[in-house]
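Exercise 3.2. Students should predict the tertiary structure of the chain below and write it as structure tokens, then compare their answer with the key that follows.

Predict this chain's 3D structure.
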Amino acid sequence: MRNKIKALKAKYLGIPVQVKASVWFAICSLLQKGLSIITVPIFTRLMSTEQYGYYTAYISWYNILLVFTSLNLFYGVYNNAMMKFRDDRAGYTSSMQGLVWMSTGVFLILYLIFRNQVNDFLGMNTILVLMLFTELLLTPAFRFWMASKRFEFKYQPIVAVTIIKTIANPVLGLILVLLSEKRDIARIASIVIVEGIICSIITIYQFYKGKKFFSKRYWKYALLFAVPLLPHYLAGQVLSQSDRIMISKMIGNSEVAIYSIAYNIGLLMNIFTVAINNSYTPWFYQNLERRRYLQIQRVTTIIMYIMAAVIILLMFCGPEAIAILGSSEYQDGMYAVPPVAAGAFFMFLYNIYVDVEFYFEKKGYVLFSSVAAASLNILLNLIFIPIFGYVAAAYTTMICYIIYSLLHNYFAKSICRHRGIPETILSPKTALALSSLVVGTALIMNVIYKYMKIRYGFIIVSSIVFIVERKKIIAIIHGVLHTMKEKETVK
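Answer key:
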């Protein structure tokens, strides 16, 4: 037994750091999002649908306002900066924190001047909005820190901090919710406290390490890159968050709660999407720079197949997932699961295409695609939510994500042609075939939900196929990991 443990340890130590980082990033994402999903049934049963809907609306506003206060400096521009300023990554990171603090301070001053109007618009009181600003000020530091560690494949610190956050957040939330009558406020407060403590420590550490609050060179580079992309980032949040805000305004917070449960189930795929993208993007940048096009195509194609298979299986399990995560009040939300899950597939495709646009700094392409899709989403929601209710929002989101990915696909292919890069790195035929399969499944799924035998039959057959073909499947995944193996790590 001891020899086997030593052999396993030796085998693990022999795995390339890029592969180990990919695995641990996926585990971190699974822990964070997975435990969050697991605790949903507890909070949905302790809180009324009105309270849970109010809490969900707060989260949506946070995600939207974060775009304005942070300029999303921890996304596309940060990856580029890690390559451009590789000799002073710590200095760049600390100066970006300084820029975020400056931006957030400006918005805070504006809020204090127009406090009453903003409170009415957001549907919150002053205490809640100040809690919101606390998150907006501190949480970007954690995102910068995570992005820098991922880019350098330093996964150990991420694992440690993720475990602490993942446990502390729901535990404190449960305690405060049980002790309070205003359980929506208590749940929000628990998040702010946990995020505030952890992100404050990281903020201080990164300022100390980088020793830069202001850098004209770094601020100019970041602003010139990020400001033109602000409509793009805002559009992305509109696509993912505006549904809940519009449902809240047009129907009510109870409907927001029901839709949110279904949306969370559909976006379980984001656990895999984020985990894959966190490792894929640095790897993609490095391999595109070295012109390893065949490797990119192979990995991209296989990941597409894996994502499509898991998403379709998730659609078939929609009613059971709703029953687990919510009480009987939430059961009708199952009809929103298939289109939201399908939308997650196209969000995954978008991430592949936009990496090409970000790498070559084609901000205009990114901007046009995002704004077009977000504008269409708002228009369709205004038309169909009053007619068909919250389920309509799931279908409008799916449609807009399809258009979103198609536009980015078109521009990414244009860039590839212009740069002499084979379009096959985007796996266009595979993407088209799997997209058709995913959308077709989503459209017929609400009919299949009425026939339990068909659903269970599919789940059983899929399980049998997986068991029988497990060696081939594992070999394919191993092939992807082998393809992602690098002889050099970007320093």
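Discussion points: The longest helix spans residues 17-46. Residues 487-491 have pLDDT under 50 and may be disordered.
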